[in-house]
Design goal:
The complex is a heterodimer of chains A (239) and B (269). With 239 residues, chain A is mostly helical. Chain A is built from eleven helices and no strands. The two termini of chain A are 34 Å apart. In chain B, helix 3 packs across helix 4 and helix 7 crosses helix 8. In chain B, a hairpin with a 4-residue loop joins strand 1 and strand 2.
Chain lengths: 239, 269
């Protein structure tokens, strides 16, 4: 905290002393002033968060479901999983224009991008977690005629939780990246739009404001899932 | 329990491994049988075949007069492994309750039953502890009563004490004998510890690897109930000697792995 304050102080002093033009590097006080004055900031932030959240939610539901199916079916594991891995190698940015052609400039393609970009870490982590269940426990469950459903809900899913949360943590910040990048291309609102327009108009103070908001969002998302993880895994500590 | 001419082979990408060859075995109701042999002799596979987790490639497996699958569906098997294999997110009590949830044990009686079982192995004060708060011996006690919870008639134990220190091991052996003498379960107890096999069992089945097969059956004629002092008697030592000789006699390496397998039990090659 002290270091942060000190850094900001030095920054402020240097900008003032050398009279750096505000389009190149605005002083912290200018940025703070812009932060207070930016009237639409809440609206843009809310929209981006909504897109990221929606994309994340879609991914989480579809991803965990698919992982459960993959673990239960050899066919899916061999037939579908490789495609998921391959699809992850496609630079997602290249797909945005295509989705925009198909689904227009609204909120839908942004949600899709956020969901596509988070899908891979969620699926791979969940699948790995579901497979990490203790083999002997699975034997034990089978020896007492547990149904697949019981094995899944009583053993596999709980043992996958740490892995799922690890995936969620990665996906949370990725979903923001997805939403913002999607907003770069063809959009008239959202933090991504704010970043692009403020950059092209050399409103560097606003650009800084957007970046700070995004950084805060990313860190909070990560922290939130860290907290949820701790709640969910209460009782069993790292073994 | 009866096995006749049981063969089990697994196919790996480059070869076929015979885990069990021509295994025939009769185990009486309430008998305590130890399966003794070095690693890789198919002891664990034998347990899996008996409990219908691994199908035999050929041969007959009969449990209580019916096929093994029938016994499994009747929840006759209680499994205990080398590691406790408890669920870390459940307390000791929760872990013992797990099988009761699966076998649809009457709901009102579950808790009382599990608490009584944990009390029986001296864990009354630890019912609400999580596995990471328990010692190795305590965890294994939980695993044992978990396998007893729904009162199965057959206990399948796969080297349950081999990861424990000597003192804890002896303690648990005596506790197991006590439980067994009270509840009269049929026990198949896999171990590679000769004196453990002799101390616990009515009969020691000696097995040999590559391929896994039975090479000797040694009835243990030591009086019951057995107390730790038995270990120092001449009779006990003679039984241990016979078991060791049976193991050694068959420890000649098969030509295929004369060099690769020259370790442990195969010291003489």
């Amino acid at each position: 905290m002290l270091i942060l304050a000190l850094g900001l102080g030095v920054w402020e002093a240097l900008v003032r002393y050398y009279d750096v033009p505000p389009w190149l590097l605005p002083a912290p006080s200018d940025i703070a002033g812009r932060f207070v004055k930016a009237t639409n900031l809440l609206y843009h932030t809310g929209l981006t968060v909504l897109e990221a959240l929606a994309g994340f939610a879609v991914s989480a539901v579809l991803g965990i479901t698919l992982s459960a199916l993959i673990v239960h079916s050899r066919f899916l594991e061999r037939g579908v999983f490789p495609y998921i891995v391959i699809s992850n190698a496609i630079p997602i940015i290249a797909v945005i224009p295509l989705l925009t052609i198909w689904f227009g400039y609204g909120i839908a393609p942004k949600i899709m991008i956020a969901s596509i970009i988070t899908f891979f870490p969620i699926v791979t982590n969940t699948t790995r977690g579901l497979k990490a269940a203790d083999r002997r426990i699975l034997d034990f469950m089978r020896s007492i005629n547990a149904t697949r459903r019981e094995i899944f809900f009583k053993v596999q899913l709980p043992s996958a939780l740490p892995y799922i949360f690890a995936g969620f943590k990665i996906a949370a910040s990725l979903s923001l990246v997805g939403a913002v990048v999607a907003e770069f291309y063809g959009s008239d609102r959202g933090l991504g739009y704010l970043v692009i327009t403020s950059a092209t108009q050399l409103r560097t103070d606003l650009l800084f404001v957007s970046i700070i908001v995004l950084a805060t969002l990313g860190v909070s998302a990560f922290a939130l899932f860290g907290y949820l993880e701790k709640l969910a895994l209460r009782g069993e500590q790292a073994q | 329990m009866r096995l006749e001419g049981v063969n089990v082979s697994f196919r790996t990408p480059d070869q076929e491994v015979q885990a069990l060859r021509g295994v025939s075995l009769d185990v009486g109701e309430g008998e305590f049988v130890a399966l003794l042999g070095p690693t890789g002799c198919g002891k664990s596979t034998l347990l899996r075949v008996v409990s219908d987790l691994t199908p035999p490639s050929s041969g007959v497996v009969e449990v209580r007069g019916g096929p093994a699958a029938g016994a499994r569906h009747a929840n006759e098997f209680g499994f205990v492994f080398q590691e406790p294999a408890l669920l870390p997110w459940r307390s000791a009590l929760g872990n013992v309750m797990l099988p009761l949830e699966v076998v649809r044990y009457p709901e009102q009686q579950r808790r009382a039953r599990c608490e009584a079982l944990l009390g029986m192995v001296g864990l009354s004060k630890f019912v609400n502890r999580y596995p990471h708060e328990l010692s190795g011996g305590m965890k294994q006690r939980v695993a044992i009563v978990r396998a007893l919870a729904w009162n199965p008639s057959i206990l399948l134990m796969d080297e349950p004490f081999s990861a424990l220190d000597e003192l804890t091991k002896n303690q648990l052996q005596d506790e197991l004998l006590e439980i067994w003498s009270r509840e009269r379960k049929t026990v198949l107890f896999v171990t590679h510890n000769i004196s453990e096999a002799v101390y616990l069992a009515d009969r020691v089945i000696v097995m040999s690897p590559h391929p896994g097969r039975i090479v000797a059956a040694i009835p243990i004629e030591l009086p019951r109930p057995r107390a730790p002092g038995v270990r120092e008697t001449l009779e006990f030592v003679q039984h241990v000697k016979r078991a060791r000789e049976a193991l050694d006699r068959d420890a000649r390496p098969s030509p295929r792995c004369a060099t690769a397998c020259c370790s442990g039990w195969r010291r003489r090659c």
